[in-house]
What does this fold into?
Amino acid sequence: MTVTTIIIQSEPFDVARETDLLRGENLSIGAIVTFVGLVRDMNEGVTVQGLTLEHYPGMAEKAIKQIVREACRRWSVETVKVVHRVGKLQPSDPIVYVGVASQHRGDAFAACEFIMDFLKVQAPFWKKEKTRNQDRWLEARTSDQASLQKWLK
It folds into this structure.
C-alpha cells in the first residue's frame, strides 16, 4: 500500500525536510526521486517580477490524488509526496515538490516524471505572471501537452 501525502500551502517548504519525511523509517526504499519547480525570472523573453498561483480548493487535491493513484497503479511505489504552493511568489521561490520513493530507481524516476507531467496540465491551478508592463494569465504550454501525450499511448 502506497503512502500518499498531498499538501497545498502558501508557505515555503524545505526540500530536505520533505525528502526526509518521504522516506520515514521505511527500510525497503532503495530509491528516492524528487522534482522541485521554481519561479523563473524570465518567460518568453519577458522579465518576470512575480507570480500568483490560484487553485480550486478541494478539486485541486482530488485531481492530484487521481494522478498519484494512476502513477501507483503503473509503477511499484512506496511513498509519494506532493507539495504545491499557492499565493504570491517571487523569482527563485519553489512552487512544487514531487517526491517518489520506491524499492527501485526506474519506478521512482518514471512515477515522478508522470506525476509532474500530469500535474502541470491537469491539476486546477492558475498562474498569473507579473511583468514590468502587465499582469497576464498563463496557459498550458504546447510542450507540456506534448509531455503528457507520451503517457497516453
In short: Helices lie at 15-23, 59-74, 105-122, 142-149. The mean pLDDT is 94. The first strand starts at residue 3 and ends at 9.
